[in-house]
Amino acid sequence: MDIKHLKTFLDTCETLNFTKTATRLQYAQSSVTAQIKRLESELDLKLFERLGKKMILTQSGERLKTYAHKLVSLEEEARTSMLTAQDEGTLVIGAQESQCTYRLPHLLRDYKLKYPTIDLIFKSAHSDEEATKSLIEGEIDLAFILDTQREHPTLLSTPLLEERLLLVSSPVHRFSHLSQISPNDLTTETILYTEKGCSYRNIFENALLTHQVHPKTTLEFISLEAIKRCVMANLGIALLPEMVVDQELKNGHLVELPFHYNMPVLTTQMAYHKNKWISNHLRDFIDMTKLYFKK
């Protein structure tokens, strides 16, 4: 049963006159007649009958009237709920610790101020591979990925910002006063790595393998802050995005080493599944992100 036909039926129950119903609804009388006949045909029941010039509701019509009110009311409730939901909902974002800590806090604050009824859920991804997997499987709505720029068959990505990778050490490290360091110089060095799958760890490992360099000692951490603390304590050296070590370089707790190697360019990218339905609040987040990274 068509909701439109039920609404016409309810109006006719009030007027008991097809002409008056047509005037009220701004339909042609033939349209009202056709809608009522369609209902009667679907139900195989007579809803109205004429007694002379008077039209009355049949017993079947009386029963349908009760249900029609409920169905029309439910349809209106559903429509109102859906319209209200446009200003509510959940946005699930995935990103690595570096993005969460150094790139996104102000963007998330501004978005939350604009959309206080949207629940923001931040899902930490320990690697760009993990963030990509979460996007493909629909676990997150959008991800910030720090990697070399390349196309993915199921994702749409927007480059936002190029990121420099820096080899850093403690100011008292034996490399800190050298004018140039090559991959071969790292053979006897302790390297502090992020978790496997991290884009800049992959780049560093590939650089060393290209020169057949196998560091004497490597340590793996899940926390960037832990890596920085250990580098500052002169436990070893690390390759990290500039945004991660910017403050420590400025205050002299870390130093950039003159690493002689042509590093690939890393790019902060915003990505989502190409088949993702873009809600109004997700669209606005995408637009706000583009403006934020242009500043």
UniProtKB/TrEMBL annotation:
Keywords: DNA-binding, Transcription, Transcription regulation. Gene3D superfamilies: 3.40.190.290, Winged helix-like DNA-binding domain superfamily/Winged helix DNA-binding domain. PROSITE patterns: HTH_LYSR (PS50931). Residues 1-58 form the HTH lysR-type domain. The keyword DNA-binding applies. One of its GO terms (molecular function) is DNA-binding transcription factor activity. The keyword Transcription regulation applies. It holds the Pfam family LysR_substrate. InterPro entries: LysR_HTH_N, LysR_subst-bd, WH-like_DNA-bd_sf, WH_DNA-bd_sf. Belongs to the LysR transcriptional regulatory family. This is LysR family transcriptional regulator. It comes from Alkalihalobacillus trypoxylicola. The lineage of its organism: Bacteria, Bacillati, Bacillota, Bacilli, Bacillales.
